[in-house]
Amino acid sequence: MTVTDRPELEGLGNYKFGWADSDAAGAAAKRGLSEEVVRNISALKNEPEWMLDLRLKGLRLFGKKPMPTWGSDLSGIDFDNIKYFVRSTEKQATSWEELPEDIKNTYDKLGIPEAEKQRLIAGVAAQYESEVVYHKIREDLEEKGVIFVDTDTGLREHEELFKEYFGSVIPVGDNKFAALNTATWSGGSFIYVPPNVTVEIPLQAYFRINTENMGQFERTLIIVDENSYVHYVEGCTAPIYSSDSLHSAVVEIIVKKGARCRYTTIQNWSNNVYNLVTKRAVAYEGATMEWIDGNIGSKVTMKYPAVYLMGEHAKGETLSVAFAGEGQHQDAGAKMVHLAPNTSSTVISKSVARGGGRTSYRGLVQIEEGAHGSASTVKCDALLVDQISRSDTYPYVDVREDDVSMGHEATVSKVSEDQLFYLMSRGLDEDEAMAMIVRGFVEPIARELPMEYALELNRLIELQMEGAVG
Amino acid sequence: MGLNEKPLSTLHEKASYELADFAVPTGREEEWRFTPLSRLKGLHDGTAAASGGVNVTVEAAPEVTVETVGRDDERLGKAYVPADRISAQAYAAFEKATVVTVPREAVASTPTTITLTGAGDGVAYGHTLVKLEAMAEAVVVLDHRGSAVYADNVEFVVGDGATLKVVSLQDWADDAVHVSHHHAQLGKDATFRSFVVTLGGDLVRLSPSVSYTAPGGDADLTGLYFVDAGQHLEHRLLVDHSQPNCRSNVVYKGALQGDGAHAVWIGDVIIQVEAEGTDTYELNRNLLLTDGARADSVPNLEILTGEVAGAGHASASGRLDDEHIFYLQARGIPFDEARRLVIRGFFGQLIEKIEVEELRDRVMSKVEAELAG
Questions:
Q1: What family does the Swiss-Prot or TrEMBL record give for this protein (chain B) (predicted)?
Q2: Same domain, B37 and B177
Q3: How far apart are the C-alpha atoms of B213 and B188, rounded to whole Å?
Q4: What is the reported pLDDT for A9?
Q5: Most A-contacting residue of B301, B305, B319 (CB-CB within 10 A), to test interface
Q6: B264 and B361 belong to one structural domain
Q7: Same domain, B212 and B239
């Protein structure tokens, strides 16, 4: 295969969400982080005292914790240049018409109202900058007691429930970025599904950063009570600026006995966003937690969705797909911690690196003493389409129990000449053939996505692969 | 490579002859976090002063020259630059080195055995260089026994077209501490076969690594370990593919039994941009025979080019397959015997690869003894 390092073909209109709206709120926002900034955020939201205390604790721990020295190069983040809180509109809307014109246009362009109209989703949240600007849940679900609100509203209206679970899965000082999120969090989704309720179609959230040098710190808390089911889908985009933004979310999920939760992310930040996210779920007896994690955009992503299997027969599953193009580093993976007997976990990771990009799979499977009868399977496949890209695998395995089975496998392969030749002899050009092979490679994951997301993923692959063949 | 030059890979960040370039490990570093520093008896923080505790004897093939040289011999340290604190400590502190040379085109007719016997409590630092000139062939055995606190570096320089087969036996007494780096440098079309057997010692940390100076190098690294209660046996491998069309294959298998038995296996493979046509595979399997044992297994892979012939790794940890034992029991074989047979099968394929017959028998009987005990 020839070298595909042909800059003239690359980066031309590949990112279709790169426009920026006019930005009065963002321009006025303050840069840098201090106790005053944190107190301000808390005061603006009229928060209870305990939350302010927690924020201040987060700020202290953020200052104390060292930057991670492993994973991606984070030296480009300038914490003093980031805007930690940007309020884009005074009031949350419940119909698209109420939104300010520019924000409404944005979501129109992203196709969100259309999806809601067609009832493809059971509820929508749209977060613009620091706060959720639009929120809607289907009436029948509301009647069954399903709570789906933005996290700020969740704290105001369901304080007891909120206080019980907030920070219980990811403690304030879990890592530097979780501490930062605790100090500055704003927005995100708060979901509670009462026992024995099945939410048949997905709840959806859409995150967008518009301001340059913005830090978005959404905080999501999902509680799925006994024998219930919910599927939550999130998507993310941002404009293309010359300097970098930071997205550092914390997602905590509690899946109670016999319940099931599926969390789907299609992350398509623009190539100037540092995406450093902590996601963790606890799964109790017989519960199932599934992470479906697509990483396509961003400059740097470090994200390792975790499942702590706390109860017998709990099950964790992560399906992960990552694309890294020029200048991108996707350091993604999964973490499975087996703490109870007869638990099982599966990790399937597929990654494609091209144009000098770098994908890394970094994972941990830990089987603690007492978790007998547990089983874990980890499979990582990487596809290389040129000679200048890079693919790494760092799977950690720690087994402390004899009666278990743990397997890890990884393969790295390149697209074969034979495959290309076969398709091209049937009249496809090289770009199309390559895109088709890559689509086939990620198909096991694409088919787990809701239809419109699967189509979106395929379209994104096509964009990513455009001009990939020289 | 200087310290300030940050290498492309995160898997081997430092290399220096100067002890001062390496901070005393705290146990929080990635490369030290699995190792119980308190059991290193001061090898890592400079408090272990050499007191000459290891006796080296060599039984050489007639075609081979063996020398004992001082630390200023200029052949030493050419192939390998210490990559961690203890390696640098050993390099800074050793007094005498053993140099084994196999001349050009010579084929050693018998194995050359270097026996390192620990005399007791003493601390010792060592250095060994095995050099095969072009087209030479030899089998070299490193036999570690007795009791000691020992840190050393071993350099294997395999010349163009040469073939070196090494067996390294860590058959220490129960209280020994051994930290060692084995580095093989392969010339054009050179062949290297390494077989590591680690059975004894309170703490053994062995880091075999391979580098290539020209295309066509071929390395097989095979390992076997049996970890008993309280033992910490750690193997950290690194294969650095920096040349086109080289091959490497790593297979390490271990069994663990008893409380506090801890096995660590780190297998790093880097395929550099220049290393087109690389073919590499790594496999680690751990058999946990009882509760209370712990196995850490980390096969890392960094690939910087798309033009690879094949790259992959696999790791599996678990207990004996019930079905295998049931099958044997159903044929009238008692449980203990069946268990022994299955474990023998697990190691058997590996042991067959040992070049020297007496060693094969010795390793097999050691494994048997471990199972009986």
A1: Belongs to the iron-sulfur cluster assembly SufBD family.
A2: yes
A3: 7
A4: 39
A5: B301
A6: no
A7: yes
Report how many Cβ contacts below 8 Å link chain A to chain B. 117
Q: Do residues B31 and B131 share a domain?
A: yes
The residue out of B319, B342, B362 marking a domain boundary is B319
Give yes or no: residues B85 and B113 share one domain. yes
Q: B209 and B282, same structural domain?
A: yes
pLDDT digits (tens, 9 = 90+) for B289-298: 988 899 999 9
Q: Are strands B279-288 and B310-318 parallel, antiparallel or unpaired?
A: parallel
Torsion of CA A28, A33, A36, A40, to 10 degrees: 50
CA distance A329 to A71: 9
Tell me, yes or no, whether B106 lies in a domain: yes
pLDDT in tens, A181-217: 999 999 889 999 999 999 988 888 888 877 778 888 9
| Tokens 């749209």 sit on residue | A126
In a shared domain, residues B192 and B284: yes
Q: Residue B304: which pLDDT band, with cuts at 50, 70 and 90?
A: confident
Tokens, residue B44: 């890592």
Q: With beta carbons under 8 A apart, name residues in chain B contacting A394.
A: 298, 300-301
Is the complex ipTM more than 0.85?
no
Q: Give the H/E segment covering residue A252.
A: strand A250-255
Question: B197 φ, ψ to 5°?
Answer: -125, 115
Put simply, whether the predicted model's pTM sits higher than 0.80 gets the answer: yes
Helices assigned H by DSSP within A158-301: 159-165, 176-184
What is the DSSP pairing of strand A358-367 with strand B262-271?
Answer: unpaired
How far is Cα of residue A52 from the mean position of the Cα atoms in its chain? 26
In a domain, B1, yes or no: no
Residue among A331, A369, A389, A402 with most chain B CBs within 10 A, to mutate? A402
Domain count, chain B: 2
Domain housing B368:
321-373
Question: How close is the nearest chain B Cα to the Cα of A71, in Å?
Answer: 9
B36 by Cβ neighbours in 10 Å (0-12 / 13-18 / 19+) ranks as: middle
A382–B288 C-beta distance less than 8 A? no
**Position B256: which residue type?**
L
- Say if residue B110 is in the same domain as residue B64: yes
